[in-house]
Amino acid sequence: MAVAVLRRLAILLVSVFVASIVVFLFMAVLPGDPAQVALGINATPDLVAQLRQEFGLDRPLIVQYLDWIAGIGTGDFGVSYVTREPIGPQLVDRLGVTLWLVGAGITVAVAIALPLGTLAAVRHRKPSGVAISGLSQIGLAVPAFLAGMVLVQLFAVRLGWLPSGGWTPPNQDVGEFLRGLILPALSLGLVQGAVLTRYVRSSVLDTLGQDYLRTARSKGLRPYQALVRHGLRNAALPVVTVLGLQLATLLIGAVVVERVFVLPGLGSMLLDSVASRDLLAVQGIVLVLVVGVLLINFVVDLLYVVLNPRLRGA
Fold this sequence. Notes:
Elements: H1 2-28, H2 34-39, H3 45-55, H4 61-73, H5 87-122, H6 127-140, H7 144-158, H8 174-208, H9 211-218, H10 223-260, H11 266-275, H12 279-307
Helix pairs in contact: 1-12, 5-6, 5-8, 5-10, 6-8, 7-8, 7-10, 8-10, 9-10, 10-11, 10-12, 11-12
């Protein structure tokens, strides 16, 4: 098992290295000069050249990349072209908000999908199972931002139970933090929960038809007992894959939800940086998001090794 883990860790490190090169080159070839943007269209060529030298943009690309990646290794993402403030501390603060949102959203999705998906599979020929399948199918068609606006209209505007947006750090007021997190988490979790419910239903339904479950039931176990004792581990394999993909989707999809609920997360920072053409900040944010997706895939691979003993030597 140690060999399998080390092999996947090596793949992760190589993927992060390649991703950093791709992100850097993509930002480097974008049109526009950050120094010109920072100074405005009326800046003289001498001022632009001076600022390019200050930003280090007059150096060869390989030198710029090595300096950038070496700084990231020590937690230094550089200084913003626009605000002239360090990017690293901003990324840490914004990443914390996004992680709270994504964590709460995936918790909601799993809490919805596991019981409902299993119930829909066990009762797939009964009205309750058909109803769950129908509702999950409707949920697939609803984008997260639309779900967010509907939730705001209902629970914030009409009922006044929850705030419509804003962010309170948990170390300031836990109650307000939780109240402000409920609607964004629901807007992400309900939609992703509908997707995950379909996969849980399909996986459990396939497992229910396996011979070993029929044998377990023939020995006197009830269907639920046979499923819990012998089937859920095998049914979890495809669900873990989908869950990993959904986590990556939530991490990227949080960009829009953060805008809807005015949350100061990575998504809001990314959109603001793009609007002001702060390319170094965009470069850092994109790399953090890409590394986040790669880490999720790495964890999914490890879970596969844990759930499936046949992969421990692979």
